[in-house]
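Holo prediction. Input below; ligand is 2-keto-D-gluconic acid.
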Amino acid sequence: MSKPAILVARAIFPQVIEKLQQHFEVEHNQADASWSREELIARLQGKVGVFTTGSERIDAALLAACPQLKICANMAVGFNNFDLAAMTAAGVLGTNAPDVLTETTADFGFALLMATARRMTESEHFLRAGQWTKWSYDLFAGAEVHGSTLAILGMGRIGQGIARRGAHGFGMKVLYHNRSRLAPQLEAECKARYVGKDELLREADHLVLVLPYTAESHHAIGAAEIAQMKPTATLVNIARGGIVDDAALAQALRERRIAAAGLDVFEGEPKVHPDLLTVPNVVLTPHIASATIPTRMAMANLAADNLLGFLLQRKPLTPLNPEVLA
Ligand code: 8YV
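Structure of the complex:
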């Protein structure tokens, strides 16, 4: 009997390709670049499964053009590249890759908070440019981290990981806002207090964004929200581009309406708003919050195991729309 055919849309670990090849006919992207949408659709013909990353948009038009497709397995916890309603309507399963990246991503969120508050890249550029000629009492004086108020917008697993680091490691007062309030036991573990969004913005010394990108969270932080923040506050976005209005943020940073920002994600990435590239008080990283080899390997394996579990036994590990299994 011939093996089911699947497509792996981006270059991934060879070991994961080999694991998939034991059970599937695998066509995989061997170049380190995305295919165009037209090429993706052409290559999806005859495929029952696709291994995606956040870069491939799966929507009604693509599904209509690829009628054999049964599962899209995302190597990401976020799945805003999936039109899940369209997938459910077409009877196509979506899976994501949660949990395995939580602690690594929380580590990075905290690192970005520290680098932003303590002006690490700005001061390094100064040093590399040969501008360090003397000690000064206020040379790159930044914002205090320990004992300050950590404000978290979006309190899922990664938000909780950042809260724990702040509360238990740095003695921070932790406030959070989320669509729903955490169970009392989780709030106690994170030492986190639920507040409204306005109070969160007003009280934050360091505001960290860890919420999913949806129509409701588009530009959740724009000029009006930044205006509510303290001029000494910092903002960190490890969630998704589009949650922050990057043009408004660049202007606020230039005018020092907040002290600094740390951004791992951008509207329209990998393009970055040109104004962000010229303001000094921002730390910029290329969407690497989950990027350690063990974590990326675990994410790739989870996406692969979702393809194997569903296509061989109808038992995916982390389904997003389990109703299609019924
Ligand atoms: C991924 C991420 O690297 O998991 C997510 O949602 O944003 C990152 O960990 C990225 O989406 C590539 O799939």
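Residues 5-98+293-325 form a domain with the Rossmann fold fold (CATH 3.40.50.720). That is the main takeaway for now.
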